[in-house]
Amino acid sequence: MMKTILHKAETRGNANHGWLHSRHSFSFANYYDPERMQFGALRVLNDDTVAPGMGFGTHPHKNMEIISIPLEGDLEHKDSMGNVAVIKSGDIQVLSAGTGISHSEFNKNTDKEVKFLQIWIVPNEESVTPRYDQITLDDHDRHNQFQQILSPNAEDEGVWIHQDAWFHMTKLDKGKGLKYPLNNPRKNGVYVFVLDGTVSVNGQGLDSRDGFGTWEVDQLDIQADKDVELLLMEVPMA
């Protein structure tokens, strides 16, 4: 029996710090909702906008898989492993915090905002050696098809993390449809996040920035009601 949860865009946590405007799909920092702690191993989904020249000062993380997906602008990353990098739209960044790491993230530009998704996945193994990686993907490869951007396997397309999770992105033209078969339907669910547009997922209508989680299901049936861009995050539910 398919189970679902719907998070409309306007119901997300809303934190506006002036330099940072963040919308939280799950409880984070000062936003707490006991009904919205996580979706399986998906612990954090923050939709962040950072003002020109501003950012997050150096801060620590431990035992978490942290994925950043830039949507607009340029985000500069520095960490305690010596990595210095700039990520922009089309890039995927992963940080396996493991035994512990410190990093900072700043808007590299002084004349425009940077917008990015910050995602935390609970790992299936703790106290691993910290690791950083980033890749650049061709977004043409997600036009009316799925582009894998993350998996548990280092040899697969995209980045990899310490968890049985798979992320895909797609841009569908109005009227197009796709089916997404789960990699592990016995244990996993899928959280769909609409970046832009209007779509139906297993009959549920979704608009821009809506989130929809489903589990105890073998596949998703996705139909674009308008041009739409989606992020699918398949994660273990236990």
TrEMBL record:
<dbReference type="Pfam" id="PF02678">
    <property type="entry name" value="Pirin"/>
</dbReference>
<feature type="domain" description="Pirin N-terminal">
    <location>
        <begin position="13"/>
        <end position="121"/>
    </location>
</feature>
<keyword id="KW-0479">Metal-binding</keyword>
<feature type="domain" description="Quercetin 2,3-dioxygenase C-terminal cupin">
    <location>
        <begin position="149"/>
        <end position="235"/>
    </location>
</feature>
<dbReference type="InterPro" id="IPR012093">
    <property type="entry name" value="Pirin"/>
</dbReference>
<protein>
    <submittedName>
        <fullName>Pirin family protein</fullName>
    </submittedName>
</protein>
<dbReference type="GO" id="GO:0046872">
    <property type="term" value="F:metal ion binding"/>
</dbReference>
<comment type="similarity">
    <text>Belongs to the pirin family.</text>
</comment>
<feature type="binding site">
    <location>
        <position position="103"/>
    </location>
    <ligand>
        <name>Fe cation</name>
    </ligand>
</feature>
<feature type="binding site">
    <location>
        <position position="59"/>
    </location>
    <ligand>
        <name>Fe cation</name>
    </ligand>
</feature>
<feature type="binding site">
    <location>
        <position position="105"/>
    </location>
    <ligand>
        <name>Fe cation</name>
    </ligand>
</feature>
<dbReference type="Pfam" id="PF17954">
    <property type="entry name" value="Pirin_C_2"/>
</dbReference>
<dbReference type="InterPro" id="IPR014710">
    <property type="entry name" value="RmlC-like_jellyroll"/>
</dbReference>
<keyword id="KW-0408">Iron</keyword>
<dbReference type="InterPro" id="IPR011051">
    <property type="entry name" value="RmlC_Cupin_sf"/>
</dbReference>
<feature type="binding site">
    <location>
        <position position="61"/>
    </location>
    <ligand>
        <name>Fe cation</name>
    </ligand>
</feature>
<dbReference type="InterPro" id="IPR041602">
    <property type="entry name" value="Quercetinase_C"/>
</dbReference>
<dbReference type="InterPro" id="IPR003829">
    <property type="entry name" value="Pirin_N_dom"/>
</dbReference>
